[in-house]
DNA sequence: GATGAATGAGGTTTCATTCAT
DNA sequence: TATGAATGAAACCTCATTCAT
């Protein structure tokens, strides 16, 4: 039987990609990524057909990881506010814990390398989150705002919150709480 | 005296850069930018010493243009809400009118090509906006939020609002108004 | 393991570099060197990190080759004159046999591309030659001439001799002998 | 009447060329030469049809200057040794006084930019020097050395002497005298 | 499957020279 | 004549991808 593609190597490549992309932007050479992952330049292409595919898979991975955080211990039966707060906090904690991952995720998001297909997949991975956010949307709708506005607002405000937590890590808890308050009021 | 460096050509290059960058990301070749601007490849480098400089100047130009929009007809003596609403609307209108400019501006912003120096210059160009936003900040501070949170929130929510206006251009007026309402409530 | 970096290819590149540099000076394009070596333009850079490095390694190679000639059959136990004559003749023969190599070596020498480091390495490669030349120097010192003058004089006179041997190859033996005589008398 | 080409500008360009070429080698850009000369890039080409012509004229100029030094106060009626010593010293003094000029002269000499025509012109400019050197050659010929060997030897030994004078400028007089002694003995 | 040398298209930038002013 | 902007060929080098080992 032939050797089998090792999940460890695949993971190492993705990990290395995060580091390199965070440092050098999307132009980071595949050779450097491979080197940091401890594999040969060519090996990268047995795990990913080309760079674009690598970037798309990385994007999925990052989004998936963030969603996993949110879904863990999700208070499925809590009030809408309780659930929204959970989403707010758990995602924010992930982003703060892994600033490089978040940075790369943002860069990939605004770039043109992410295919429509990939975007659909991440949307699908929403799970419990989607449900909650659409409930919020329905509330927002009463106020004449379109579907999706709630989640867009949340991520927009999280963006803002993150920057400040980055500057004053000590006040993290406080800033996260206040940030959520602002969010909640925005949609009230 | 010989031919004089023409502001038109400079402007054409910047205009072409917006188009190319919007289409192909920051990796867009200088040769293509020059071609679209109707000048020779080498000419680009008589107007900008290198690609990085071009991108930085472009960023300044875009930010400057947006600020100019906001500063025009700024109701310097209006209430805080009035002034905030003006900033909200006028910037949003610019962004909606020139989606490519906005896209490129965002891409430049998250990339690493923008120097510290450039960022300082854009900050300095704030003018009337800064004054208003810092008033907002002082209010926000009462709510335990850090300095700068107000403007970060505004631009984050504008980001969200833009997306929706893009999808439903007909409801532009309505969405802009509602979006501001959300913003205003967030900071109450 | 993948293909292994082939010494033949490296040698072919250096050989091609000699030809191209002899023809077109130090400005000879790396692309032409690669083409003459029968490799792709990019391949040159897997053997040498950049053009300057290529030129420095070439210089080392040429100097090394010349020294190897001299060191072969070096009459380590002969009289000072005998040893000096050997150096004189064997180097000269090399230079006459490979005029392009010598030309390139001279060009590299007066240019600014050769690093201090490279110069030190060639000096270190001197071996038996250095020993003999410093003996000569000690004799020269008696005549009030500074250390290093002997070897400088030798290479300077060889330079002159070479030109004439080039013009009248038939009288090579004779000219080499007379040239050495002039050298020997200069330092008596 | 049209403006006339100013000899001052021509001279300034040649002067600037020496500086630039000494610093950056023959690849020094014409634009930098022009800038250092205080003229516009294009002006350079009204004084010299192209770069190669500039380099050739510069070579002539440098050789001419050196010859002028030698011809001044030439002891036309002195003994052969007296005349040879004058050539030796006066050229050496020039070379020591203007190290950049000498460096550039050497670089031009080994390069391929100097045309056959230019070389003939410099040879022709020899004047009194040629006469003396050919007398030396006739003496050398008795020793079985070819025509031209005397002058080749002289410039070769001067090359060596210069290096050492450069290192110990204080002993200039002494080194020049001893160097000539070595030269004289070589041909004795 | 793993390796890394080989490839060559393509990127940025330089520069001699031209030419409108 | 003087200027310096404009030109575009060409230089060096990078890099995604292929493929012999």
Describe the structure.
Four copies of one chain form a homotetramer. Chain A has 188 residues and is mainly alpha-helical. Chain A folds into two domains: 1-48, Orthogonal Bundle (Arc Repressor Mutant, subunit A); 52-187, Tetracycline Repressor, domain 2 (Orthogonal Bundle). Helices cover 74% and strands 0% of the residues of chain A. The first copy, chain A, has ten helices and no strands. The longest helix of chain A has 21 residues, at 51-71. The first copy, chain A, is elongated, with a radius of gyration of 18 Å. Chains in contact: A-B, C-D. The interface between A and B is large, with 40 and 39 residues. The structure holds a DNA duplex (21 and 21 nucleotides).
Secondary-structure map:
The structure is a homotetramer of 188-residue chains.
Chain A: H1 7-24, H2 30-37, H3 44-47, H4 51-71, H5 80-97, H6 99-110, H7 116-124, H8 128-142, H9 149-167, H10 172-187
Helix pairs in contact in A: 1-2, 1-6, 4-5, 4-6, 4-7, 5-8, 5-9, 5-10, 9-10
Chain B binds a DNA duplex (21 and 21 nucleotides) through loops.
């Amino acid at each position: 039987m032939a050797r089998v593609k090792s999940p460890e190597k695949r993971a190492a490549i993705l990990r290395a990609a995060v580091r390199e992309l965070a440092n050098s932007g999307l132009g980071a050479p595949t050779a450097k990524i491979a080197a940091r992952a401890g594999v040969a330049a060519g090996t990268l292409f047995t795990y990913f057909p080309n760079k674009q595919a690598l970037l798309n898979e990385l994007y999925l991975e990052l989004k998936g990881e963030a969603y996993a955080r949110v879904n863990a211990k999700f208070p499925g039966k809590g009030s809408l506010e309780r659930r929204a707060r959970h989403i707010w906090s758990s995602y924010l904690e992930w982003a703060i814990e892994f600033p490089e991952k978040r940075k790369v995720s943002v860069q990939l998001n605004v770039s043109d390398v992410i295919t429509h297909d990939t975007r659909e997949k991440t949307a699908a991975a929403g799970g419990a989150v989607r449900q909650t956010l659409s409930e919020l949307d329905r509330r927002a709708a009463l106020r004449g705002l379109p579907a999706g506005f709630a989640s867009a607002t949340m991520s927009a405000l999280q963006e803002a919150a993150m920057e400040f937590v980055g500057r004053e890590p000590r006040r993290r808890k406080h800033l996260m709480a206040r940030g959520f308050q602002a969010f909640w009021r925005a949609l009230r």
